[in-house]
Design goal:
Residues 20-299 form the ABC transmembrane type-1 domain. This protein is of the alpha/beta class. Helix content is 63%, strand content 8%. It binds adenosine-5'-triphosphate.
């Protein structure tokens, strides 16, 4: 793990301002450290050797420096905390925008995104508030201290200069070990979140089939593993702090012994000896702090590294729609990971056509629609032109409804909210009568994924959403699934009417749905892999 990942500067601009401010405050702090030591050494010397009185005039400069040092340290904390908040805000916004632009198939799963955007990025607080300011000080303070010590005492300067590099060397050795431990800890946390979300979503099914207790045991196992890895990481953190403390204490002791011996034989003055004794620990302090705070910040950096990997995943090629050009699939082959490739597919859909894609279950009808929306990238062949998503209205096989009102869900893809247009779209989709029968009508709140409606009602709301969105390309995946014959007949007429002046591509099983199409495109069926041949 690099102490400062350059990608942080690239993806979170707030880091740059923070670093500039940190360096300015660090320079001020280093100057104040040296001033404080110099003033303190000369005050003690004048009191002990010259018998000077400790009056307000003698102590005032020292008091001012101490107060200034406290003010700079406070400013550092404020700047760091604000920077952490700004960087997290920036990275979260970019992460979510990029994941949305990547679309399904390319973006990470929702559990990974949720863990990264919340707990993962929150761990950057420690990195900004504790680690980075100390890193800046670690680069500045030792240099300033050595420059001040050199003219006063060369032997002590040489001792400090020779022992200082040992701390970063040990830190690097410890860091090599910590990085993998932290990545493992974060991976386990993500797995735990994945599993937990899955289990909560499937709890009714798991309970009915008597597997709920087993899942609780699996979650307990993963949690225990995560606890073990966390404890291991903490052990390394505590041990490495001990090593660094020991190293710097021994180094300061080495300087102190040299000073003591030379004080005794009279080759060193008290003022110089005091200056060296006060300044030497200050040279080691920021390096020790960097080491101590490294572990607290490593989790945030591990999460940030994952965020950068997502941000650097290239977006699919910019799509364009030309409403008057046919959409051509030329020898398109899709191979899902771990599955045999689907048979090559070629066809052309003319503008204004209503086309039904048919074929046995699993032959790739939904996949053709996903390829068209850029959610799935073919391993061979081309689709041209790939439509821009703003020109597409889509009814997936399992329509998604969000937590919100029925009106929110119908108007999801519409440019504005026109109550008359919404009612008419609901009427076209055969949804108006059941919506109006609800006490709150269009303002009825729905739970997650449309909870509170039957499957057929959900289907009709999703269809109303498609009708309301005035898109030139309409993709429908089994639009009449789950509906009774009378409702289906109404919807077929509505789809036919909506298709006027639009290109409509439907994945269709039911003969009644196939019957309304201008043209039927039968997909090649998948031939089973010969026995013994892995997919
Ligand atoms: N995300 C995925 N990962 C792996 N395999 C997938 C994925 N999505 C689809 N498949 C596989 O690709 C094949 C085609 O799936 P697809 O959903 O396109 O078929 P379909 O013709 O729409 O089926 P149905 O009529 O049952 O809806 C199936 O064998 C399926 O298992």
């Amino acid at each position: 793990m690099r102490p400062l990942d350059p990608r942080l500067l690239r993806h979170a601009r707030a880091t740059r301002t923070f670093l500039v401010l940190s360096v300015a405050l660090g320079v001020a702090l280093a100057g104040l450290v040296v001033a404080q030591a110099t003033l303190l050494a000369s005050l003690i010397t004048s009191v002990f050797l010259d018998g000077a009185a400790v009056g307000p005039a003698a102590v005032a400069p020292l008091a001012v420096v101490v107060l200034l040092r406290a003010a700079v340290a406070w400013a550092q904390q404020v700047v760091a905390t604000r920077a952490a908040a700004a960087v997290k805000r920036e990275l979260r916004a970019r992460l979510l925008a990029h994941a949305a632009a990547l679309g399904p198939g390319r973006a990470p799963t929702s559990a990974t995104l949720a863990t990264l955007a919340t707990r993962g990025l929150d761990a950057l607080d420690a990195y900004f508030a504790k680690y980075l300011p100390q890193l800046v000080l670690a680069a500045l303070v030792p240099v300033v201290v050595l420059v001040r010590l050199a003219p006063a005492d060369l032997v002590a300067t040489a001792t400090v200069a020779l022992t200082l590099p040992l701390i970063p060397v040990f830190m690097a050795l410890v860091g090599l070990h910590t990085e993998s431990a932290n990545r493992r800890q974060f991976r386990l946390l993500t797995r735990l979140s994945h599993h937990f979300l899955d289990v909560v979503a499937g709890l009714p099914t798991l309970r009915v089939f008597g597997r709920a207790k087993r899942q609780a045991a699996v979650i307990a196992e993963i949690s225990a593993e995560q606890r073990r890895v966390t404890m291991r990481t903490l052990r390394v953190a505590l041990l490495s702090s001990l090593v660094l403390e020991l190293l710097s204490t021994l180094s300061v002791a080495l300087v102190a012994v040299g000073i003591g011996l030379r004080l005794v034989d009279g080759s060193l003055g008290l003022a110089t000896a005091l200056l060296v004794l006060i300044l030497a620990p200050e040279a080691y302090l920021p390096l020790r702090q960097v080491g101590a705070n490294y572990h607290a910040s490593a989790e945030g950096l591990a999460a940030a590294t994952d965020v950068f990997a997502i941000l650097e995943t290239p977006l699919p090629a910019a799509a364009r729609t030309s409403a008057d050009a046919p959409i051509r699939f030329s020898d398109v082959v899709v191979a899902y990971p771990g599955r045999p490739p689907l048979p090559a597919f070629s066809c052309a859909v003319a503008p204004g056509e209503l086309v039904a894609l048919t074929g046995p279950s699993g032959c790739g009808k939904s996949t053709v629609l996903s390829v068209l929306m850029g959610f799935v990238t073919p391993t061979a062949g081309t689709v041209s032109p790939l439509p821009a998503l703003r020109d597409v209205a889509w009814l997936p096989q399992r329509p998604w409804l969000g937590a919100g009102t029925i009106a929110d869900n119908i108007c999801l893809g519409a440019a504005g909210r026109d109550p008359a247009a919404m009612r008419s779209a609901a009427a076209q989709a055969g949804a108006l009568s059941f919506i109006e029968a609800l006490p709150d009508g269009f303002d009825t709140p729905l739970g997650d994924d449309g909870a509170g409606l039957s499957a057929g009602q959900r289907q009709r709301i999703a269809l109303a959403r498609v009708f309301l969105r005035d898109a030139p390309l309409v993709l429908l995946d089994e639009p009449t699934a789950g509906l009774d014959a009378a409702t289906e007949a109404e919807l077929l007429a509505a789809i036919r009417a909506h298709a006027a002046g639009r290109t409509v591509i439907m994945a269709a099983h039911r003969p009644s749905l196939v019957a309304i199409a201008d043209r039927v495109i039968a997909l090649p069926s998948v031939t089973p892999a010969p026995a013994g041949v892995a997919g």
